[in-house]
Design a protein that fits this description.
- The protein is about 55% helix and about 5% strand.
- The chain is of the alpha/beta class.
- Among the domains are: about 160 residues, Potassium Channel Kv1.1, Chain A (2-Layer Sandwich), CATH 3.30.710.10; about 100 residues.
- The protein starts with a strand and ends with a helix.
- The relative contact order is 0.04.
- Belongs to the NPH3 family.
Amino acid sequence: MKFMKLGSKPDAFQADGKCIRYVTSDLATDVTINVGEVKFYLHKFPLLSKSSRLRKLVLKASEECCDEINMVDFPGGPKAFGICAKFCYGMTVTLNAYNVVAARCAAEYLEMTEDVDRGNLIFKIEVFLNSSIFCSWKDSIIVLQTTKSVLPWSENLKIVGRCIDSIASKTSVDPANITWSYTYNRKLSVSDKTAGDGMKFREKIISVPKDWWVEDICELDIDLYKRVMTAVKSKGRMDGVAICEALKTYAVRWLPDSVDSLDSDVHSWRNKLLVETIVCLLPSDRGVDCSCSFLLKLLKVAILLGVDNSAKEDLLKRISLKLYEASVKDLLIPARPPQTTLYDVEMVLSIVKRYMMHRHDLDVAKNEMGCTDFVLGHGSLLSVGKLIDEYLEEIARDPNLSLASFIDLSQSVPEFATPVHDGLYKAIDKYLKEHLSLTKVERKKLCSLMDVKKLTMDASMHAAQNERLPLRVVVQVLFFEQVRSAAGVQPLRNTSHYTTNTEEESEKTAAEDCNSLEKQMSRIKIKEDAFQEKCELAKQSSKNSKSGIQLLPSRSRRMFGKLWGFGKGHADNRSSETSASSQSPTSMVPGDTKSSGSSSRNRRHSIS
């Protein structure tokens, strides 16, 4: 820390209790000055030789026959006045980053200028500020923090502005040229090198990161922090990634972790102001820089604290542009009254719709420019499709989630965004498990979201034995597997294990959920006496087969074709809404079975 010593005489100031200060001298004191609650018994001559204002006040007191001088609202209080008084006596005074601002404001109040005496206190302090304080990174931050206690004097003297400019200028310096001390608690990068003799040793790479400055300015209050960050952005030399890192670090530093602390009466206003300020300081380019996870966390806090709609709207726009980066945990936004669900599904649906609108506009612009980058254009959409399936699987456990909300969210992304429906199947199965009161029509409507042709082998096998699914859906699964097996089509495989580690972990979790479901499932029992023996043979052959699927007998295939019911007719009404445990193919009229044989075969041929 920089410091400056003024004067050479020993300090002769003494204290008598908390409210009296005097100078030990052979001469009796001849003036009493009240600063706040402290009385200073001093001598006129040294004071009047340095301070123009004290001259005026002493003259006025003499005319009014008053023995004391009262200084109301003295900047810096008794401590700052003591520094000025010692300077007038020529006693040793040490200025540093903690007291220099108060001393400068006090000297301005006392009018200790060059017109009164050459080399006066104001001049010396200004030299110290410009040559030492503003050249030091940490001293500039300390001085800026102390300016709040002497407002508006520090603002009028432009000390605040000069501190902010000094800090902002240093943040944009090339990290390779940083020579001053700063706070950086995160781990330095470490490289492992192999020595020539085969022994390993670790070498720390002592390098200055681009965001070296973000932790130090986190100590500033929110109003000063906002002004510093505004100045940093105005310089135009700081990229958006570093800006977002600074805002994230500040949010982590000051926003409490618990919900109760966030919404408490004591800190609610401050936390609300903090969130609004951070949103205001986000980079102007909404499509880059800040991670979607950080933006969603800000949105959760903003909803909880009830920040203004403009801030929430800005966050929603930014999140919708980077939705493909989000995780299911990020999207679990707690619902607020009067909502009855656990999570705010409507908010997520709004974000997805915004994302799709943005994609539409982007696709139109690309078509006009003749750009056809399929990988970059649709890769993010596939990520969003998978994200929505996983989100549906998570919220399906909510007993208050309406069927309409589930369907709307599932249909918010186009079909090609979900080439594999395993995730959607798991979500539907969990919804059926939690909402046992669904009618047959509702269950049919829910299961219509799923395309059995997009299920992998494992999901198909699970669905074929799932009693919660309508019998019609089960038959569709079995029939399509027969068609696929007969045509020699390679079954779908889930390729999610080729993605990142996080996705691998989510796939493991999904597999565990699937295993837990398999423990509870039971096989479908078809009670038709005429087909019982053939169905048992089909099951036996499916167990012995390596793929688990074999062609069913021709009569059973005709039955499955009948139950699949692509066309409209009374046979569809009898079987489409029938569960595996309540009805069987015997409910069909024999004549209908015969008459539908040819049409059923035609339909199977068109699919295969």
